[in-house]
Amino acid sequence: RKEFVDLYVNYVFNESIRKPFEDFMQGFLRGCPARQWKMFLPVELQIVLQGHTKFDWHLLEKNVTYSQYKKSDRTIRNFWTVFHKLPEEKKKLFLAFLSGSDRIPGHGVEHFKFSIADPQAENPDECYPFANTCNYILFLPR
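The chain above was modelled as a monomer; its predicted structure follows.
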């Protein structure tokens, strides 16, 4: 029985996926040569490829720059008050809205910077917040 179980487990986890995995590995190595990736530990490589999943939201707030706003403006103070009360999943959704990803790039939150700008709408009550994901700019109407 032990031999049967060993052979079955080997088939399920190794033999049955050998061809699809070889195809995947060939494509992956074409775009990401293995020599360059060997300098990373597995945890580091995961962060480089996937980004950070744990965040210091207060550090993120400190890295923000403001355009047509000051940090002391009521709109900005209200924004951060509401933001910090959000549950973790909603904060990640905001990050996805702002940057296109719910993760911070591999270089870390201390280097992730974004801007909050006033879109200078004629009637701010008729304007929704919107984001420029390429440049990490949140346009926040007053």
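Strands lie at 65-67, 115-117, 130-132, 137-139.
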